[in-house]
Design goal:
By secondary structure, the chain is mainly alpha-helical. It has 14 helices and no strands. The chain is globular. Belongs to the binding-protein-dependent transport system permease family. FecCD subfamily.
């Protein structure tokens, strides 16, 4: 833990907010179109309808905001999942939450021709909930009951199953392939502000609940017997936490597709900074998760310019070494 005092933690949080805002401003000006800081300022103070102002206000602004919200959601969901399961690899991507939500949306697009963002959101919630229940149920089999290793294997199996079913659907229905292929790679490119406004009430409520629940999560991480001895209703706490994960994961998939590794990398980095107190972990994950995804999105614009790499590819490229390190360390200890 680097920040040992509360003063340092507050200062670190403020620095994180400044970094996030700086990266979001950078997201407004960096890209294939030649823009600068003055154009970005003028786009909001003296809009003239030029191509540059349109790109900044209608394309890059929603993109930066969506990146910040999705990154925050995935990081918080990963932190809560790691606390509930005591599994260092727990995250919406590893446990198949993203894959399940994505599969349900692909069904809606390819079979039922759904094209409403509101519908996508609720379909993603359903897919995330079904997957979470299936992973918990499968991971509970056997005499040892629920263990971190069994949860990881169950999550990996469900992620592989839903990914395979998704690919099978797209092979059968090639007409739907163009609509969802770039989205399935995980991308904030081309997303509109309406998409963010649709999920924002759900995401905002879930983030507020996660902050309010943070102290109870601290108690729960001490062990279920200890939590019950202190009078905590652990079943209710776990249920609310699971609903928060479903809402955050489902909303992220509905807006940007299945983006991996943020839910693993950021919570571990945050614990390195502030320790294991979830009253600090949750807000730090929100800020640094958003900053990480916005930064990855900026990088994705330059890799193969003038084309763009889906941001999900960039997060995988950055996050894979961390995933390998965490996996080796976590299972080595177990």
């Amino acid at each position: 833990m680097i920040f040992k005092s509360n003063y340092l933690k507050v200062a670190g949080l403020l620095v994180g907010v400044a970094l996030l805002l700086l990266l979001m401003c950078g997201g407004l000006i960096f890209g294939y179109a030649n823009t600068n800081w003055k154009m970005a300022y003028d786009a909001f103070t003296s809009f003239d309808g030029s191509n540059e102002h349109l790109i900044i206000s209608n394309v890059r602004l929603p993109r930066s905001l969506i990146g910040a919200v999705v990154g925050a959601s995935l990081a918080i969901a990963g932190a809560i999942m790691q606390a509930l399961t005591k599994n260092p690899l727990a995250s919406p991507s590893v446990f198949g939450i993203n894959a399940g939500a994505g599969f349900f949306i692909v069904i809606a697009v390819s079979i039922f021709y759904v094209d409403s963002m509101q519908a996508y959101t609720w379909i993603a919630f359903t897919g995330a909930a079904v997957t979470a229940f299936a992973v918990y149920f499968i991971g509970s089999f056997g005499r040892e009951g629920l263990t971190p290793m069994k949860l990881t294997l169950a999550g990996a199996a469900m992620a592989a199953l839903f990914s395979s079913l998704t690919q099978g659907l797209l092979v059968v229905n090639e007409a739907a392939l163009d609509q969802v292929l770039f989205w399935l790679a995980g991308s904030v490119q081309g997303r509109k502000m309406e998409s963010l406004l649709t999920v924002l009430p759900y995401v905002g409520t879930a983030i507020v609940l996660s902050i309010l629940l943070s102290q109870k999560i601290n108690v729960l991480t001490m062990g279920e017997d200890v939590a019950k001895g202190l009078g905590q209703r652990t079943g209710i706490v776990k249920l609310i936490a699971a609903l928060i994960v479903i809402v955050l994961g489902g909303s992220s998939v509905a807006v940007a597709g299945p983006i991996a590794f943020i839910g693993i990398v950021i919570p571990h980095f945050v614990r390195f900074l502030v320790g294991n107190d979830y009253r600090w972990i949750i807000p730090y994950c929100a800020i640094l998760g958003g900053a990480f995804l916005v930064f990855a999105d900026i990088l994705a614009r330059f890799i193969i310019m003038p084309e763009e790499v889906p941001v999900g590819v960039m997060t995988a490229f950055i996050g894979t070494p961390f995933f390998v390190y965490i996996a080796r360390r976590g299972f080595g200890r177990s």
